[in-house]
Every structure is written in C-alpha cells, then in structure tokens.
Write a structure and sequence with these properties.
Elements: H1 3-18, H2 47-59, E1 63-75, E2 81-93, E3 97-104, E4 108-113, E5 117-122, E6 127-132, H3 137-148, H4 162-167, E7 172-181, E8 184-192, E9 196-203, E10 210-217, E11 225-234, E12 253-258, E13 267-270
Parallel strand pairs: 6-12
Antiparallel strand pairs: 1-2, 1-11, 2-3, 3-4, 4-5, 5-6, 7-8, 8-9, 9-10, 10-11, 12-13
Length: about 280
C-alpha cells in the first residue's frame, strides 16, 4: 500500500475515533418484514409457435419485398474453407409472380416468374433459359427443382406451406432466448434435422419479421454455414406488372436446360436458331 494511501486511511481512522460516542436509547422491537413475494415464473416460449406466427404473418401478405445479405461457406480439399458474399432482392406478388435479383462474388443472376413462364438469366454470360410453368409460385419453383435441379435461396418464404416445409424435417426444436440482430430484439430459435441445424431470428413485436438465418451443414466436411441477414421488408410496395416479365437484353442468347440425371448439376446448351431468329 502506498504511503499516501496509508496517510488517508490513518486520517480517516483518527477522525472516526475522535467522534464522541452518544448514549443510544433502546428501541422497541420491530415487527419482522413481510415475506418477499416469489417472482412469477417466466413462461416458456415454444419455438414452433414463434415460427408459426411468423409463417402466418407472411402468408397473410398479398405482396411484399425484402433484401438479404448472404455469406456462404465453400469447403475445398484439405478442409480449406472460403466465404463468399451474395446480395439478394426479392419481389413477391401472390399467387403467381416473383422476381429475384442475385449479385455476389460467384453469382450474378435474375429469376422471373410471370404466371406462365419461369426465366433464369445469367448476366455474367448474357444467356437465359425459359420453362413453361403455369400455376402459382410454389408450383413453378417445385417444377424447376424437380426437373432441372434449380433452387433459389429464400424463395420458400413465398410459399404458403413454409412452416410445413420446416417442420417436416425437424427432429429437435429449441428456444434459445431473446437476442438482438443489428440492434433489434429477436426470438432466437434453433431447429435440428440431424444432418443440418437451422437457426432463425424472428423480430419480437406485432410484426414477426424474419431478421436472420444460419444454416449449418453438420455432416459435410468443415460444417459449412450459410448465413443471411434480412432487411428492408415492405408489405405495401408499388410493383409494376412488367417487373416480373423478362425482356432479353441485346445480344442475350437463349439456352435449353437439360434435365438433371443422377444428382448432377443442371446443364445448358445453346438453342439452335431457326430462320435467323434466336
């Protein structure tokens, strides 16, 4: 202890001891304080109910737009892992129109569905493919997945069966807690399917908006993660009809996608021109 500190302690001690003691009058005994009330137990939060509330809210919206900031882990030989970025913009008008713009480190594509045709345009190579897919958004995307192996991230949010798609794979559900995503309090939920773990953050309050997703592929080497931060939700957007209709840019080449065989990735080949037309 420093000398200056000891001096302060001695001074304080001398002052305390120099105060004359006063005779204290005996006080009557006081009644014991009432017993403290036990805190009401905090009700447990069911993660499935939180998810269901989010699904019901989205399902009730005739149209909406949002953006997503995505990071995607890619694992290479020797366990080397690299992370790539992707920005997504979604435009949804139920029941039969959707557009997705995707631009990132590895992808620069656009998806259109106008109620009759589903078009995928690759901006980097200036090529596009078209498939007839009459019906609703979900039916068109399901056909594209089954026939050509085409899956577009987060398009399940436009499906009225969103919760059914999640719950059909879940073996264990957990409510983690109330945590913040970029300053917004959210219900943190975890769903495990065995091969993968899905974590979602749903905003607390009257609008249960999806704010964050983390998908971990547990059985793949390196356990790569796919993460998305969702923002700019708009449930009253002004959407022009031609937003969902693809118009080929100058010089764009039309291709045909070959059906997926044996789990292979979909392939494309240039479409033969007839009569000088593309």
């Amino acid at each position: 202890m420093r000398p200056k500190t000891i001096g302060w302690l001695l001074m304080l001690g001398l002052l305390w001891w120099s105060c004359p003691l006063k005779a204290q009058t005996p006080q009557p005994p006081q009644a014991p304080p009432p017993p403290a009330k036990e805190a009401a137990p905090v009700p447990e939060v069911d993660p499935r109910q939180v998810l269901e509330k989010m699904c019901d809210f989205l399902k009730s919206q005739p149209q909406f737009t949002f953006k997503a900031e995505v990071t995607d882990d890619q694992v290479y030989y020797g366990g080397k892992k690299l992370q790539y970025g992707l920005d997504l913009a979604f435009f949804v008008r139920r029941p039969d129109q959707i557009r997705v713009n995707a631009e990132g480190d590895l992808v620069n594509k656009q998806l259109y569905f106008d109620g009759k045709n589903l078009t995928l345009y690759d901006r980097n190579h200036n090529v596009y493919g078209v498939m007839a897919a009459p019906g609703d958004i979900e039916g068109a995307l399901e056909k594209a997945n089954k026939e050509f192996g085409l899956r577009v991230a987060l398009t399940d949010l436009a499906s009225p069966r969103l919760c059914d798609l999640v719950n059909s794979r879940v073996k264990h559900a957990l409510y983690v807690g109330l945590h913040k995503v970029r300053g917004v309090p959210c219900h943190h939920l975890s769903f495990d399917s065995g091969a993968a773990q899905l974590q979602v953050w749903v905003e607390e309050g009257p609008q249960p908006l999806l704010k964050k997703i983390v998908l971990t592929h547990k059985e793949q080497a390196g356990s790569p993660q796919w993460t998305a931060y969702l923002s700019d939700w708009n449930f009253a957007p002004q959407l022009a009809d031609d937003l969902f209709v693809f118009s080929p840019p100058q010089g764009a080449e039309k291709i045909k996608f070959l059906p997926v065989k044996g789990g292979q990735a979909p392939q494309g080949r240039p479409e033969k021109k007839k009569g000088g037309q593309g």
